[in-house]
Every structure is written in structure tokens, then in C-alpha cells.
């Protein structure tokens, strides 16, 4: 089946997002072929997984992510907010993440930055990717155009992708100028025409974030080669192995 399942921040519906627990669940699910994770930098320059710019929502820490050293971040509880079952779950480095998935899953690594928030973020992430020899197993995505440009300046062979929530009129021109081969798009903005146009240009398209079976099926009908990002990969069999679906399309 060509439609591919991307586990959003790992299997974040069941486990705390961007943690090893969520990644391990993704690794154990045969339907998952990709994970999507968010990367920022510690104060001492360690790339690690977290979505928000503050620690408040997903850890027992407080304040901006960038104010903490990696040693301080490792001491935080990143699981109790989800459930007692995950009390004591820790934040993880990008290094640990890639070591866990190498040869098993591909990774959509979102560079969480804007402006000059994290000088050197791109180089640090590229260094970790090269360490694990995963240049052909990852795509670096971002809302930030400068960040994507920096990746191409420093590692031309790495794939990059633009993330969009709204549809700019010059979308494909932007993608071309940024040398992107990947488009990460809010599923509500995706149409069959857009998906086909992207495919003709050799672009992979990932729709985010979809947690309803009906919506998964509708999206699958737009184009056979989509990636669908979900917090709940456990819904995949219900969406795509039902009798009324063939190769991700309605009969």
C-alpha cells in the first residue's frame, strides 16, 4: 500500500510526545514507516527532541528551552504530564533518537526555530545525521525559510521540506527556490489538484495531523503516494485494511 504512516512525535496519542517511549511504540507498529520529531538546542548546543519553546507543557520544568543545559534537561520528568504510567520518562537527544530508529524507520526532523533563535542548529543536526550515516533516511523540515536555506548551504545532498499551514500563492516557486523535495501541509489545505501538481514536480507530500479514520480515507483518495502524519497509528488498520478500500483508495 503506497500511503505511508508517519507517527507524529512518535506514537504521541498513547505515549508522551518526542520521548523514547513514543518512539518505541512507533518501532513496534508494523504500519509505521516514518516518525516526525521536533528538534531544538540546549543551552550548551545539544540537539534534542521537544516541540514547544518552553518546558511548561510537556515537562515539570519551567521557562524557555534554550535557557537549560543538557544536563539540566535530562533531570526533568517528561512523562508524568501524559499519565502516571510514564512518570520519570526523560527528554532524549537527537543522537539517541536516530540510534534507535536507524535502519528501521525514516525520520521527518522538524527544525523548531525562527529568526536567529538557535544559531548553529542546522549544523548540529546535520552533524548527528552524518554520524549515523542517515543522510538518505531523513528529511529536514521547517516553517523557517532561512533554516531550510542554511541546510542546503551546508549539506546540499540532504532533503529538505517546507511546512505550511496556509497556502501561499507562490508555493511551488518557494519550494523550487529553497530546493525542497518535500511538502508538509495542514491536511485541511490539501486538495487532489495540489497533490497531483506536487507529484508532477517530484515532491513528496505529508498531510498533518490526522486522527480520524474517515479523514485518513478521504485523504488517501486524493493521491496514492501521500504520507499521512498521525498521533494514532493504531487507527491505520481500520482506515486502510477495510474491505471497501483498495491501495488506499475507495472502491
TrEMBL record:
InterPro entries xref list: GP_PDE_dom, PLC-like_Pdiesterase_TIM-brl
GP-PDE domain mapped to chain residues: 3-240
GO molecular function: phosphoric diester hydrolase activity
Listed GO biological process terms: lipid metabolic process
Domain of life: Bacteria
Pfam families linked: GDPD
Name this protein carries in UniProt: Glycerophosphoryl diester phosphodiesterase
Species of origin: Paenibacillus apis
Origin organism lineage: Bacteria, Bacillati, Bacillota, Bacilli, Bacillales
Name of the gene this protein is made from: glpQ_1
Amino acid at each position: 500500500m503506497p500511503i505511508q504512516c508517519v507517527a507524529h512525535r512518535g506514537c504521541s496519542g498513547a505515549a508522551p510526545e518526542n520521548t523514547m517511549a513514543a518512539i518505541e511504540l512507533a518501532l513496534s507498529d508494523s504500519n509505521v514507516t516514518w516518525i516526525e520529531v521536533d528538534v531544538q538546542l540546549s543551552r550548551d548546543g545539544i540537539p534534542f527532541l521537544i516541540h514547544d519553546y518552553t518546558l511548561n507543557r510537556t515537562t515539570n520544568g519551567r521557562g524557555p528551552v534554550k535557557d537549560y543545559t543538557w544536563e539540566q534537561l535530562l533531570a526533568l520528568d517528561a512523562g508524568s504530564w501524559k499519565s502516571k504510567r510514564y512518570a520519570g520518562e526523560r527528554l532524549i537527544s537527537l543522537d539517541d533518537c536516530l540510534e534507535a530508529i536507524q535502519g528501521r524507520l525514516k525520520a521527518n526532523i522538524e527544525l523548531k526555530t525562527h529568526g536567529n533563535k538557535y544559531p548553529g542548529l542546522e549544523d548540529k543536526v546535520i552533524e548527528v545525521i552524518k554520524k549515523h550515516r542517515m543522510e538518505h533516511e531523513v528529511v529536514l523540515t521547517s516553517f523557517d525559510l532561512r533554516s531550510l536555506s542554511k541546510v542546503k548551504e551546508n549539506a546540499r545532498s540532504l532533503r529538505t521540506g517546507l511546512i505550511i499551514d496556509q497556502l501561499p500563492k507562490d508555493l511551488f516557486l518557494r519550494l523550487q527556490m529553497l530546493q525542497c523535495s518535500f511538502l508538509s501541509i495542514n491536511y485541511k489545505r490539501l486538495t487532489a489538484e495540489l497533490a497531483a501538481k506536487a507529484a508532477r514536480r517530484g515532491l513528496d507530500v505529508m498531510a498533518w495531523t490526522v486522527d480520524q479514520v474517515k479523514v485518513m480515507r478521504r485523504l488517501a483518495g486524493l493521491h496514492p503516494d501521500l504520507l499521512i502524519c498521525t498521533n494514532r497509528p493504531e487507527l491505520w488498520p481500520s482506515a486502510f485494511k477495510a474491505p471497501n478500500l483498495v491501495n488506499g483508495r475507495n472502491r
